[in-house]
Amino acid sequence: MSAKPIVVHHLENSRSQRILWLLEELEVPYEVKKYKRTPQRRAPQELLDVHLLGKSPVITDGDVTVAESGAIVEYLIHKYGKDKIQVPEAGWLDNVYFTHYPEGSVQPVLIRRLLFKLIPENVPALIRPLIRAVFSKVDEKVTLPELKLHGKFIETHLAKTKGWFAGGPNPTSADYMMSFTLEIMIDRAPEAVGENIKEFVKRVQER
Ligand SMILES: N[C@@H](CCC(=O)N[C@@H](CS)C(=O)NCC(=O)O)C(=O)O
């Protein structure tokens, strides 16, 4: 471990939660540096000074800076968690899949739902009813059905593993990555969420 503790550059209400949970489970010392969002909900300049993309999470570990939550999870497990986080052989592919699936496939749809809700609130009042009607139709016909499909897929997988995503006795990278996405899904798309997802999030929060 480097002499200086790991620093988690934590933007409020962000994916950093995945990293904080992982570091707690790994029992690796770390510091949290908090950043407030701008009035436009963006990251402040101070976060752009840490990494050119200015996205959260970012960690610094000695001279190494790592961005992108999936990359951070894999880096931390590779460097500090080989003994603690073991993926069962039978769940190896599920672990790879569910490590990449939340950012690659689910988060973009959840973000689209949020944006399509925010856009009508930010147009001139005169055209707001029209814009709201258009975006609400898109939500009903495209976004929500897509989220329901993801919900069904995740429910079906969790019904098989009855626990963590890779089917083992402890969380693996897939669970750290899925945790934040499923919390957001419960919040933004409760219509798409079933009992297995709720139980998974409860299990995560209990730890
Ligand atoms: N795929 C990236 C997404 C990072 C991301 O978009 N983070 C959001 C917070 S959850 C952010 O920094 N938003 C502020 C901004 O874009 O200015 C990851 O998993 O780390």
TrEMBL record:
Domain GST N-terminal: 3-84
PANTHER family: GLUTATHIONE S-TRANSFERASE 1, GLUTATHIONE S-TRANSFERASE-RELATED
Single annotated GO MF: glutathione peroxidase activity
Residues forming coiled coils: none
UniProt keyword Kinase present: no
One annotated Gene Ontology cellular component of this protein: cytoplasm
Taxonomy, superkingdom: Eukaryota
CDD domains noted in UniProt: GST_N_GTT1_like (cd03046)
Listed InterPro entries: Glutathione-S-Trfase_C_sf, Glutathione_S-Trfase, Glutathione_S-Trfase_N, Thioredoxin-like_sf
Name under which the protein is recorded: glutathione transferase
Bilayer-crossing regions: none
Similarity field: Belongs to the GST superfamily.
EC numbers: 2.5.1.18
Key words of the record: Transferase
Pfam families: GST_N
Record field: catalytic activity: RX + glutathione = an S-substituted glutathione + a halide anion + H(+)
Organism listed in the record: Cyclocybe aegerita
